[in-house]
Design brief:
47% of the residues lie in helices and 9% in strands. The strands form three sheets. Strands 5-6-7 form a three-stranded antiparallel beta sheet, with no helix packed on it. Strands 1-2 form a two-stranded antiparallel sheet. It has helices at residues 9-15, 24-50, 84-96, 99-110, 124-139, 142-156, 188-198, 202-217, 254-267, and strands spanning 62-66, 72-75, 159-160, 165-166, 179-181, 228-231, 238-242. Helix 3 runs parallel beside helix 5 and helix 5 packs across helix 7. The protein is mainly α and 276 residues long. The N and C termini lie far apart (45 Å).
């Protein structure tokens, strides 16, 4: 199999930049992105066919990465990365204006729709807004709008008013009672979008509450971020600050660096309650 490079979010931002076409480097980058996408569209169906699916498990629908042996790793819609590839295709559609990328984006976006009802994970924002959110921005397809609003309702079920934040994980219950991870900030965009699209400001209020709680409790004086903050559901107070994937409890969680800016912006965002 041909070597496949994973394109970062910085590249994806370039694809939709207004200055597209003005820079030789940008043109070269876009060409590489198209080449990679074309390769993925060839290889994903093959990888899906080759992957055995255990009884009762969901089939894979999206590419995630490469295995240590260089094979394409594909994941079901439930995986937190499943919406990234559809979003990537939507950005290619926007950047190039070529219908073939929108056609592919619609196909892979449809594979994620069941996640609008998944109440077991906070990752619904990652999955649905990268795919359906990008699709709605570019097409205003009313069915996409419905999926976004339903996904926001689903995400809202994980909000505890006493804590003032959205629960991140249901696993490792022996380790923490109500874990909130800094990465959860990236799901709030879905809630703000749902308020704009539906006029229901409850989504906005949940998002701001979560952002404010995060801003107050996830950061050290040097602005580095904890990975996990565990809360008491009876008092809403912090029980402990820890990590699950980082080097140590007091190490800086790199993804939280981006979350810090997001938290500040969300906590001061103004609602737009009129449906658009």
């Amino acid at each position: 199999m041909m070597k496949l490079h994973t394109l970062g979010l910085g590249l994806l931002s370039l694809l939709a930049a207004p200055a597209l076409g003005q820079s030789a480097l940008t043109k070269k980058t876009l060409k590489l992105a198209e080449t990679q996408a074309a390769l993925l569209l060839e290889q994903v169906p093959l990888a899906v066919q080759q992957k055995a699916v255990a009884p009762g498990k969901l089939p894979p629908v999206s590419p995630r990465s490469l295995t240590p042996t260089g094979e394409l790793a594909v994941v079901p819609s439930k995986d937190w990365t499943s919406g990234f590839f559809p979003g990537y295709l939507w950005l290619l559609s926007e950047a190039t204006g070529q219908p073939k990328w929108q056609t592919a984006a619609r196909t892979y976006t449809a594979n994620i729709e069941r996640e609008k009802l998944d109440v077991t994970s906070h990752d619904v924002g990652f999955k649905v807004y990268c795919s359906f959110g990008s699709g709605y921005r570019l097409t205003h397809d009313p069915t996409y709008r419905e999926v976004i609003v339903q996904a926001a309702r689903t995400l809202s079920t994980r909000f505890n008013p006493k804590v003032g934040a959205i629960r991140s994980w249901d696993h490792h219950r022996e380790t923490w009672g109500y874990p909130v991870i800094i990465d959860n900030m990236m799901n709030l965009e879905l809630l703000f979008a749902a308020t704009r699209l539906s006029g229901d400001s409850s989504f906005y209020k949940i998002a701001v509450s979560h952002a404010t709680k995060t801003l107050n409790n996830h950061f050290r004086p040097d602005f580095s971020s904890y990975h996990v903050v565990d809360y008491d559901t009876l008092t809403g107070n912090v029980v402990k600050r820890t990590t699950h994937q980082g080097a140590a409890n007091e190490s800086a969680w790199a993804r939280g660096r981006a979350g810090r800016c997001t938290a500040s912006l969300c906590a001061t965002a103004k609602p737009r309650t009129k449906p658009t």
